[in-house]
């Protein structure tokens, strides 16, 4: 019991030391303090805090640091200046909370897994080691987060500018579904059955290998990962032939990997709109439905997409097995199995 108490005390000290480094100061302010001292409306304080993913706090509970007060006030000032609306304020806060929360979990779990696999720690020991390691990495991690954000923002801004110019040249712009993209979904076949037969660590290895393989292919193929949910990954590409290359490459790579079950992929080219880092529209729904009925190891597209791919890259991919397919919530669609034709495989640089 004494040893256990000492361990608990050591963990508490590590957590306290880490919080001190991360929060950069003591908790000194309540919601009422920020409202009275800085003139920040309490509703925006509550909205900001909740949007970041933190629980509600009473107006007199001392929970905010000086850094918290500055961050909240800085974004609220943009609302006061008319640079953004309260709606945009909430959306931006939600995006920051969601993605930074996932990133924090990703990084800490990567360190835990490192301690297990490299140093032979059990889960509890690995998490203790993570608490001691994070302070040593803060400066580098912060630099990497800012660098990556700026590079990603530059890439998305360039893409938006290109779309504006293209729309101007074509003289057309769809206000409802303004984005023209290839959207695809890929998942592992019989993953539920697999999850029952494997242990937690083995299952995590399968999911990780699948995701890493897909992410590498999507990046090399010029696409972007939209999100991952369990064993499913969703991607976008700016041209139909790029979407086809990514979809077929994923199916091929997973099929040729003896450590993974087959994947099935659905892909469509069409119009959609973007919100909250995601995309929506009939094209997205169709792509997801096609994935659900694709053959193991295969890629399924609709007839319009196969024709768009052929126009963009004649002979690059082979369309076969055109068959009417009933899709739940959509109706009958002419589905086409897509495979590699004369197009060269992606050069993964490995």
From TrEMBL:
Cross-referenced InterPro entries: A/G_cyclase, Adenylyl/Guanylyl_Cyclase_3/4, Nucleotide_cyclase
SUPFAM superfamilies in UniProt: Nucleotide cyclase
GO biological process: cAMP biosynthetic process; intracellular signal transduction
Annotated SMART domains: CYCc
Signal peptide segment: none
Domain Guanylate cyclase intervals: 182-291
Highest taxon in the source lineage: Bacteria
Record-level Gene Ontology MF annotations: adenylate cyclase activity
Classification via PANTHER family: ADENYLATE CYCLASE, TERMINAL-DIFFERENTIATION SPECIFIC-RELATED (PTHR43081), PH-SENSITIVE ADENYLATE CYCLASE RV1264 (PTHR43081:SF19)
Family per record: Belongs to the adenylyl cyclase class-3 family.
Record's protein name: Adenylate/guanylate cyclase domain-containing protein
Native species: Brachybacterium endophyticum
């Amino acid at each position: 019991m004494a040893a256990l108490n000492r361990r608990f005390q050591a963990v508490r000290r590590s957590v306290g030391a880490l919080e001190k480094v991360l929060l950069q100061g003591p908790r000194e302010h309540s919601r009422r303090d920020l409202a009275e001292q800085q003139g920040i409306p309490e509703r925006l304080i509550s909205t900001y805090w909740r949007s970041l993913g933190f629980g509600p706090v009473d107006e007199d509970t001392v929970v905010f640091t000086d850094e918290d007060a500055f961050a909240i006030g800085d974004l609220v000032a943009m609302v006061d200046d008319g640079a953004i609306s309260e709606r945009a304020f909430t959306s931006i806060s939600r995006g920051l909370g969601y993605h930074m929360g996932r990133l924090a979990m990703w990084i800490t779990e990567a360190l835990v897994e490192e301690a297990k696999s490299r140093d032979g720690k059990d889960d509890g020991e690995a998490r203790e080691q993570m608490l001691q390691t994070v302070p040593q990495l803060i400066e580098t991690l912060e630099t990497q987060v800012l660098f990556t954000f700026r590079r990603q923002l530059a890439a998305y801004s360039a893409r938006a500018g290109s779309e504006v110019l293209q729309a101007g040249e074509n003289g057309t712009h769809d206000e409802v579904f303004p984005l023209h993209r290839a959207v695809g979904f890929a998942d592992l076949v019989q993953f539920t059955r697999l999850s029952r037969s494997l242990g937690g660590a083995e299952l995590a290895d399968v999911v990780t290998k699948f995701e890493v393989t897909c992410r590498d292919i999507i990046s090399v193929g010029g696409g972007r990962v939209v999100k991952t949910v369990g064993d499913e990954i969703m991607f976008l590409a700016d041209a139909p032939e790029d979407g086809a290359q990514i979809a077929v490459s994923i199916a091929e790579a997973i099929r040729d990997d003896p450590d993974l079950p087959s994947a099935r992929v659905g892909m469509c080219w069409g119009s959609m709109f973007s919100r909250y880092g995601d995309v929506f529209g009939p094209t997205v729904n169709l792509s997801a439905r096609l994935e659900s009925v694709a053959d193991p190891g295969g890629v399924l597209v609709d007839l319009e997409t196969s024709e768009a791919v052929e126009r963009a890259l004649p002979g690059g991919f082979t369309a076969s097995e055109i068959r009417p397919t009933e899709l739940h919530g959509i109706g009958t669609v002419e589905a086409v199995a897509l495979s590699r034709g004369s197009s060269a495989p992606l050069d993964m640089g490995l």
